[in-house]
């Protein structure tokens, strides 16, 4: 086997392993999200849902007082990761979210408001719409 072929196979295997791991994480979150309870510790949440894809640190006042606890997000993609980095107070609609109080206990949570989908419309979507804009083309059933 050539070195180039071996590298290609290794890269493909790595990508496949990452995709399988990510899909497993999403199913773990989806399966156990309803088991969240107020007062859980971060280690209990991690045992239940796995590691979060994004952790937004607590908001701290100038005097060092913790104003809000951290926020954990699950199911982030490149867009929601960028949003979290640029605008940490913005909570994307497409992710599972767990909020902690200043003492580090779960205070609330929220499943995705909008399920993450491909930007390309699926073939079984007959509405003629994208998630953001009406289609400029009228539907064929008119």
Describe this structure in words.
The protein is α+β, with helices and mostly antiparallel strands and 142 residues long. The protein has one domain: 2-Layer Sandwich (Beta-lactamase Inhibitory Protein, Chain:B, domain 1), CATH 3.30.1450. It has three helices and six strands; from the N terminus they run H-H-E-E-E-E-H-E-E. It has helices at residues 3-32, 42-49, 78-86; strands at residues 54-56, 59-60, 66-68, 71-74, 96-100, 106-110. It has a four-stranded antiparallel β-sheet, with no helix packed on it. Strands 2-3 form a two-stranded antiparallel ribbon. Strand 2 (59-60) and strand 3 (66-68) form a beta hairpin. The termini are far apart. Residues 11-24 and 118-130 have low confidence and may be disordered.
Q: Could you give a short description of this structure?
A:
The chain is of the alpha+beta class. The chain has one domain: 2-Layer Sandwich (Beta-lactamase Inhibitory Protein, Chain:B, domain 1).
List keywords for this structure.
Beta-lactamase Inhibitory Protein, Chain:B, domain 1; two-stranded antiparallel ribbon; 4-stranded antiparallel beta sheet; 142 residues; globular; alpha+beta
Topology:
Layout: H1 3-32, H2 42-49, E1 54-56, E2 59-60, E3 66-68, E4 71-74, H3 78-86, E5 96-100, E6 106-110
Antiparallel strand pairs: 1-4, 2-3, 4-5, 5-6
């Amino acid at each position: 086997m050539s070195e180039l072929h071996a590298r290609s196979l290794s890269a493909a295997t790595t990508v496949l392993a990452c995709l399988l791991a990510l899909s497993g994480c999403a199913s773990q979150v989806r399966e156990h999200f309803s088991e969240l309870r107020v007062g859980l510790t971060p280690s209990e949440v991690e045992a239940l849902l796995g590691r979060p894809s994004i952790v937004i640190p607590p908001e701290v006042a100038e005097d060092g007082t913790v104003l809000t606890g951290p926020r954990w997000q699950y199911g982030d993609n490149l867009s929601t990761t960028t949003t979290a980095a640029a605008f940490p107070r913005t909570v994307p609609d497409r992710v599972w979210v767990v909020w902690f109080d200043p003492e580090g206990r779960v205070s609330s949570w929220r499943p995705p408001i909008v399920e993450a989908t491909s930007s390309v419309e699926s073939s079984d979507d007959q509405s003629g719409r994208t998630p953001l804009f009406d289609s400029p083309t009228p539907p064929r059933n008119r």
